[in-house]
Amino acid sequence: MAVAAVGRGASCNAAARDLGCATSTVVSAVRRYREAGRGALRDRREGNGQRKVDERFRERLTRVLQRTPEDWGWCRPTWTRELLCLELERRGLPQVSVATMGRALTSLGARRKAARPIVQCPWPAWKRRRRLYELKCLHAHKPPEEPVLHVDEVDIHLNPKVGHDWCLPGQRRVVVTPGNNQKRFLAGALNVRTGKLTWVEGKSKASDLFIQLLWHLAGEYRRARRIHLVLDNAAVHTSQKTRKALAQLGGRIVLHFLPPYCPQGNRIERVWLDLHANVTRNHRCRTMDQLMVRVHAYLAARNAQRSASPCLRRADLRRTA
């Protein structure tokens, strides 16, 4: 294709740009064609021997990537392509170049990702699994008149969360931060069966915010015999003020606590991640009131459209305000 493009009058640079290859590749192909004709254009890698990156190679590479270099005896916490070449060679596989290792990683769909920090649950594994199974059974066996909701709080910062965005080559998105950070807090409850989100807003993350949510749920689900809340072990969920509020509600609301440091068991965590992705990441609101208008508009649209990324325009924000 390079030789044909040059034969039609294109320059080597233009042919390389159209084919997405290096200019030296086009120059080399044209030179071989002029010196030896069409036979010189045949793929000369046929005599390279057996292919090194085969299914066995990919299988071993997958097994190596499932653990860290320290697990395999190396004094380094993260993988590099060079280190992967050495580890696979140590396992008796053929020696490959760094570029070949990069292509092998691409064929597996492997990508460089940021690590996800977590706090280890102090409970034994069997006890944690049993508690999560009990909560799963709670969702499956409770009747419709006893709704099960996942509850959690989220911080809304005026200083934006900085994240990735699509940009043209040579450009980079600029986000101006207000400087003096401000905070608002939401307490929300996600109905597991219907997907409906109920939330309240406050200026502090104290027991009063959670109690406000309890009374709001009691009014919204006034026909429910009992409301089951799945939540974490935050102090506001077990404070003396919270216990008094639960007693005033006559036992209509029952709290079911997750194991410590198990956010993956709380389904509302996914809602807060979507909220940050759709509203707070790279936002350009200059005041907290502007940002909260967008937060409430997004959550209302999520309930109405039953979508994690509902379609919103500025007119929708004005109606919400």
TrEMBL record:
InterPro entries: Homeodomain-like_sf (IPR009057), RNaseH-like_sf (IPR012337), RNaseH_sf (IPR036397), Tc1-like_DDE_dom (IPR038717), Transpos_IS630-like (IPR047655). Gene3D superfamilies: Ribonuclease H-like superfamily/Ribonuclease H. Pfam families: DDE_3, HTH_32. Residues 148-291 form the Tc1-like transposase DDE domain. GO terms for molecular function: nucleic acid binding. SUPFAM superfamilies: Homeodomain-like (SSF46689), Ribonuclease H-like (SSF53098). Signal peptide: none annotated. This is IS630 family transposase. It comes from Corallococcus terminator.
